[in-house]
């Protein structure tokens, strides 16, 4: 049952980040990105916002399933964010 609360917390944080980054375009919330060097801030906000929305949906769905293996969503979310940071710092810089 403890897994449900952790995943629910991850879902809430991911939905908030999806809203603030994807909809409001608050890219200053992102760490690991060199804001001055990114060419297209709008594209970065869309990509990260959509990824956070997907993580939020997966975490919310996982919190409803009481199975110990659902906790694997945490490392997948972290790996995805690292991959997004690497993509942005390699492909989206000037």
TrEMBL record:
InterPro entries: UCP037672. The keyword Nucleotide-binding does not apply. Keywords: Exonuclease, Hydrolase, Membrane, Nuclease, Transmembrane, Transmembrane helix. The keyword Ribonucleoprotein does not apply. Coiled coil: none annotated. It holds the Pfam family DUF3784. GO terms for molecular function: exonuclease activity. The chain crosses the membrane at residues 6-23, 44-65, 71-90. It comes from the Bacteria. This is Exonuclease.
């Amino acid at each position: 049952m403890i897994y449900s609360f952790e995943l629910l917390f991850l879902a809430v944080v991911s939905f908030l980040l999806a809203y603030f980054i994807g909809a409001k375009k608050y890219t200053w919330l992102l760490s690991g990105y060199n804001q001055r060097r990114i060419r297209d801030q709008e594209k970065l906000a869309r990509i990260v916002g959509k990824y956070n929305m997907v993580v939020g949906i997966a975490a919310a769905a996982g919190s409803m399933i009481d199975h110990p293996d659902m906790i694997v969503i945490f490392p997948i979310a972290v790996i995805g964010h690292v991959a997004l940071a690497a993509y942005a710092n390699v492909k989206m810089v000037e």
